[in-house]
Amino acid sequence: MKRKVIFDTDTASDDTIALLLSLEFFDVVGVTVVAGNVKYENEINNALFTLEYFGYSHVPVFLGASRPIRGIWRTVEEVHGEKGMGRLDIPKPSKKPENIFASDAIIELSKKYNGELEILAVSPLTNLALAYLKDPSIVKRIKKVWIMGGAFTRGNTTEIAEFNFWVDPEAAEIVLKSGFDITIVPWEITEEAATITDDEWSRISSMGTKRSNFFIKVNEVLREYSKSTGAKGSVHPDSLTVTIAYDNSIILESVKKRVDVEVCGKSRGAMLVDWYDMTKSDIKAEIVTKADSSKFKKYLFEVLSKA
């Protein structure tokens, strides 16, 4: 039986591929949309369209926070394309979102699937933070939270901050101090293990399936942007995080430490790791420090090669 998950997303390019992987690997009982990558209305359309396009119209979509807790952020269309789907101009989806706020849906689904539900948090953590603030007992009902976020020393948005933590560091701080069972996949690990090189891009392009063609189209702008920063190809952090959640053996090395987030000044969004256990806190997260790139890409290629 497939594990039950909520896919929490600021839907753009790699998020859509991570969503496709989630649908393949898990029983996705809900998709929750949150402010982040691109204009909120485009994120909604991207999520609805992706589900519809791949035949998962039955999966409910819940609309969440349309801004971070403090509302200090910017969207990054230069990374994902004008509407977040590379250069793919998608039609208006016929599928509609549900009439319940995402944080409330997270609470309700945690009650329905008490002790089973996992959260694939590949976006800013606003929705989950709001759910926790409304109902702190949710910590006891949610089995696991998988977070793509944070950076050790090199951010992708500021010198030190990764985008998801930078968009809503207050939400990240709340979630990380809540007591959830958390695994974090930081930015540098995704650069090392989830960069699709030119040869691998060509391999995907040559598959000629509906899924592979979609991958190429929605990630074209991401690839160009990634390479402009010195990367060897397009970087796919959300897809790596989802695949790690599915197969934990992709984690080659990890540490369990207390993690906090800087919420002030020029270092806003920085991930703070208590390497020496100075606070003696019992609330710790597993931080992935090395991942199996070959195993991740094997899964990705298998899913994309399917008709």
Automatic annotation (TrEMBL):
Gene3D superfamilies: Ribonucleoside hydrolase-like. Residues 5-298 form the Inosine/uridine-preferring nucleoside hydrolase domain. Keywords: Glycosidase, Hydrolase. GO terms for molecular function: hydrolase activity, hydrolyzing N-glycosyl compounds. It comes from the Archaea. Transmembrane segments: none annotated. InterPro entries: I/U_nuclsd_hydro_CS, Inosine/uridine_hydrolase_dom, IUN_hydrolase, Ribo_hydro-like. This is Nucleoside hydrolase. It comes from Stygiolobus azoricus.
